[in-house]
Amino acid sequence: MDKKVCFLVVIYGKDFWDSSTFLSLEKYSKYKEIEVYIHNNGPNSLINSFNSNSERFYNFKKISFFENLNNQSLSSIYNFFIDKTMLYDRRVILDDDTVLNDSFISKIFDLAYYDLELPKIFEITNNKQYFPLLSNEILLYERDISDIGGGVILSAGSGLVISKKIVDIFVQEKLSLFDQNFFLYGVDYSFFLRLYKIQKKKKYKLIIHSESTILHNMSQNQKIESWRQFELHINDILLFRHYPSFLTFVKFVKLIFVKIQKIQIFSLLNLILILVIGRHPKVNHEN
């Protein structure tokens, strides 16, 4: 029996036709029964574009479109999508600048059972691999990583293929998959760190694979703008607050030291306030 699959594509600051992710899915919709949920996160409305190009969506088995022009948190978008696809066998999370290929699509619709597929993610400009990470080392080869000997798995959110079993486990544990204390950076890591905590209980047997590849714009070679740098600092603060470890502690101490050294008092006070409150300033307090 075919697997029931739904794709989430989060678009920000571009039209459908400027999204490499959507164009990839459009190509494969001619051969696969693809259901897709598109979330336009602003800042410009795409309703007119959606309505005036309806023929471009005919090949999709089902397409749902939603937009929030206020730049909604990724954690709340992802969790909403998870809630809407509770009965699906698999759900796939994608951003708007990922290039999909045959290996990835084949793995998604593979009849063989698995709980989590973490594609190997390569930078689109230089073909350098960045994810997934296993105990802070890049996972280079195709393999079953179900038995990782206590190591922590981390990857980017775009490309995650999540089974119904994982969704059900998080429900049993009374946890959302993505920590809604995070807004942008850290949302994907929060899933893996929550999964790691669950796995340490040794109550569940999960099958985790990394057998496909995707291309992604990692923005690794671009100059980091000041707002993005501050978002990364917020991520470090929140990871230390909610998922303390030696690594998050070291990052926290280094960050505070740099702020003091550069006499960035206002920025330092903001970060300390975020540490105390425990959530990103742009999100409401949810689980």
Order of helices and strands: EHEHEHEEHEEEEEEEEHHEEHHH
Instruction: Please report the number of helical segments.
Output: 9
For the biggest β-sheet, the strand order reads 3-2-1-4-13-6-14-11
Unreliable residue runs: none
Superfamily at the CATH H level of the largest domain? Answer: Spore Coat Polysaccharide Biosynthesis Protein SpsA, Chain A
* CATH architectural category of the largest domain: Alpha-Beta Complex
Percentage of β-strand residues? 15-25%
CATH class of the largest domain: Alpha Beta
Helix content: 25-40%
Distance between the termini: 35 Å
Calculate the mean pLDDT score and round it. Answer: 92
Q: What name does CATH use for the topology of the largest domain?
A: Spore Coat Polysaccharide Biosynthesis Protein SpsA, Chain A
What number of structural domains do the residues give?
2
Largest sheet features: 8 strands, mixed
Q: Which structural class do the helices and strands define? A: alpha/beta
Inertia-based shape: globular
Query: Which value, in Å, is the CA radius of gyration?
Result: 19 Å
InterPro entries: Nucleotide-diphossugar_trans
Keywords: Transferase
GO molecular function, one term: transferase activity
Protein name: Glycosyltransferase, GT2 family
